[in-house]
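User: For this week's homework, look closely at the record that follows, marking any run of repeated tokens, and judge whether sequence predicts the tokens.
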Amino acid sequence: MNKNLKRVLSYALGIVLAMGLGLTYAYAVGANDSNAFVTKTEWAAKVAQIEASLDNVNKTIDDSNMDFVMNGPRLQAGLIDGFENISTIGTHGDPFSVITRYSTLAHYYNRFSVYSRTMLSDHWDGRQGVETVYAGAGSDYSQQGYICNARYALQSTDPNIYLIISLYHMDVGSNGNANLAQVCWVDISKKIQDYSVAKNITVILPESEWGHYGATNASYGRNNGHIGNTSCEFFPPMLLYHNTTNTAIYPLTTTGYGQTKTVADGKITILMEFQAGYPIFRTAVNQSASFGIFPYNMNGRKMGNAFDSIMIKYSTSSQGYVDGIAKIYCPTKGCLCLKNFLNGEIPILNE
């Protein structure tokens, strides 16, 4: 179809060009001598000129603009800088509260397009695919499920250690904190992650370039309220809304960890203290001061989504086909990314 359309366009452009050249030549002859004829030499020269022009038209169609028109452009559903590969932007333009599943699977809310669990995923060859996140079991579940809208990584003060932040539902109120989020740490210098030891990780960001979603930047003292550590499901595409009293959904611990956010001297400093054996923070309500930090300028870059993931090897027997985590430049995300899948890159937004 593309080739036929290109051929028709090239012929049409060629005819227009030929008519233009012919009319110009006829006018020139008529203006000088109405009885003059075009010689074979003159005609051959004009034919060569038209053929050269057609070659240029074909080259333009084949090499640049028309190929782009025929084969693309890439789909962009979000239409907000950084969020082009998530789902539709819903009420009030908020990109964080619309991709969800109501707890009653047959509920009419689940039939709305903004609750369709459909989003775009980036492919390794520069194209995109439409994907649907699995909503869980075939029967009703007790909690409302939210799908990961944004996933990104932050390099810590140790250049080999990264925090991977997954945001499922944000509070657009006065504090702008995360209602449902997850943070996991990885060490890309190790093929097998050592989560048997406690880890304190610090990230420092320039305040002039980074802000708190839905609120002004502010310091928060150390806290571990309404968050919990877990050791399972590193990068799930969907999380059920939960809290620290609902341990039947996710195994959460309540001691040995904390988080602190300090804003001073033009810098945002985030300290996260992970308990031994628990490389993940999860939060359920808007008390997580360290979540929801975004760069002001996402022009040319894109957040990851539910389908951007990496496989973590944390023992000699786990995920044996994964051989470490690579850091690569990803043209579809427009920045450096963490990667070890064919498709799916987690963008590093502070490196």
